[in-house]
Amino acid sequence: MLKTRIIPCLDVIKNKVVKGVNFKNIRVMGNAVEMAKYYSLSGADELCMLDINASYQNRKTFIKTVESIAKVINIPLTVGGGVSDLSDITDLLNAGADKVSINSAAVKNPKLIRQASLRHGSQCIVVAIDGKRHKNKMKVVIKGGREITKNELITWAKQVQSLGAGEILMTSMDTDGVQNGFDSNMLKKVTSNVSIPVIASGGVGSLEHFYLGYLTKSTGLLAASVFHSRKYKIKTVKKYLSSKGVPVRL
Amino acid sequence: MKKKVIGLIDGQSGNIGSINKAIKDIIKGRPYRLKIIKGHFNYSSFDKIILPGQGAYATLMSNLKKLKIIKPLKEYLENNSSYLGICVGMQILSDWGYEDKITRGLGVISGDIKKFRNKKLITPHMGWNIINLNNDDTIITNSFDKKDFYFVHSYIFQNIKKSDVLAFTLYGQKFPSIVKKGNIYGVQFHPEKSHKHGLNLIKNYILKS
Fold first, then answer.
1. Strand order of the sheet with strand B82-87?
2. Cβ B129–A2 below 8 Å, yes or no?
3. Which residues form the domain of B66?
4. Is A248 part of a structural domain of the chain?
5. Contact between A2 and B18 using a beta-carbon 8 Å cutoff
């Protein structure tokens, strides 16, 4: 039986893992390579790392960090943040990423998804979708939730699937960073409308939240703060899920 | 002592970085040499060949053709030389692939590569799943039975002879996760991404065969 994946997410600036709510009060949580190695050894099923400040100056160091991480882990690595065109995708794959996540660039230019999946295969193209409720509708947002696009969430999710995305990384901007749990309602709407894997992201604060995330039919559960702050070890989460009957890799 | 030569084929089908590093770590201080194969090669100068692959069957076959690798690889396999195909590198051992367009494979292990039958399944089959051994041998030892490996694929080996299936996995249906014919092995999962069990499998393949 396929296991539910537990995926720690590293928000990275250059080579440091950082934590900040809406890009304010940014705190350094640790060295990205060391944290990646630690998570790989302690039972993470995959790793996700995002360049949250993909400026020209920072990018080179970030790519070097991807290379260093790819060398020390032997679990799949998804890399995103600041991916704007095909050459960015190629650069990250060459640096050792197994999958590349595209967000705003896909919204601005949906054809990029098709081009990227034709060139590299669907299995390595993840589309990250940020969703938010606006006037009773679920909409796609970009720029960390500050810009609401005209795209309706479910229509967009179906569209990225038909354009060749291999996976959706679904973050609810209504629950992200608050630690009150995943946005079950939004996630269920997405998983029931697509047939590609969905990774749930945004809002985990307790063990039960992981279980509720599993119930949304998301096959990957992504979390950052609860792992970086050492509130939970990955093993603790997996043992808890296993006790609730969720298939996990122990 | 003459060093054994391992060939790693770069079929331009995904990144060979992880597998390259895994092999290097294993052969460090041992009598082996690693050569990356990027074009025509002399099939008799390799003791083992590993072909990793991602993406589509048709793409890998056409890349190998462009790189002039098909002919020497076929000669190599016809000699029952030692081979490990990973993911699409396993799939092209079949007669035909049905991804994107119908493509002729290497025809080493009879069968076809087709989509999962259940249309309601979440595909790709992406993540960790266990393998169930039908038989064990010196490389795929009992210690791998019921262990988790990392899979990413939407197509599976079908119409294959039972005797060519060394292990199977369940996802909506039973499908072959390790195939074997003589010294030729194929794994549907990615051992280079499968943490310690994956590395042990690659290690066994290199050192024990």
1. B32-37, B4-9, B48-53, B82-87, B184-187, B174-181, B165-170, B132-133
2. yes
3. 4-208
4. no
5. no
> What distance in Å separates the CA atoms of residue A124 and residue A126, rounded to the nearest whole number?
6
In the DSSP assignment, the letter for residue A80 is E
Tokens of A191: 């998983």
Is position A25 within any domain?
Answer: yes
Within a domain: A63: yes
End-to-end distance of chain A based on CA atoms, in angstroms? 13
- The total number of structural domains in chain B stands at 1
Q: Please report, in tens digits, the pLDDT of each residue of chain A (250 residues total).
A: 999 999 999 999 999 999 866 556 788 999 999 999 999 999 999 999 999 988 888 999 999 999 999 999 999 999 999 999 999 999 999 999 999 999 999 999 999 999 999 888 899 999 999 999 999 999 999 988 889 999 999 999 999 999 999 999 999 999 988 899 999 999 999 999 999 999 999 999 999 999 999 999 999 999 999 999 999 999 999 999 999 999 999 9
Which CATH number covers residue A79? 3.20.20.70
Instruction: Report the DSSP beta bridge partners of residue B4.
Output: B32
Evaluate whether residue A185 is within a structural domain: yes
Q: CA quadruple B133, B134, B138, B139: dihedral positive or negative?
A: negative
Which residues does B153 contact at the CB level (< 8 Å), separation at least 6?
Answer: A123, B87, B124, B125, B188
Please report the ipTM that was assigned to this predicted complex. Answer: 0.95
> Whole-model pTM?
0.96
CB contact set of A243 (below 8 Å; sequence gap of 6+): none
Query: The CATH number of the domain where B137 resides is what?
Result: 3.40.50.880
Residues of B in contact with A122 (CB under 8 A): 124
Q: Which pair of tokens denotes residue B160?
A: 């294959």
Report how many domains make up chain A: 1
Residue A180, domain extent: 5-243
Per-residue burial over A5-25, b = 16 or more CB atoms within 10 Å of its CB, e = otherwise: bbbbbbbbbbbbbbbeeeeee
Q: How far is B184 from chain A (nearest CA, A)?
A: 24
Residues of B in contact with A192 (CB under 8 A): none
Task: Choose among A3, A96, A196: nearest Cβ to B148.
Answer: A3
A244–chain B Cβ distance below 8 A for any pair = no
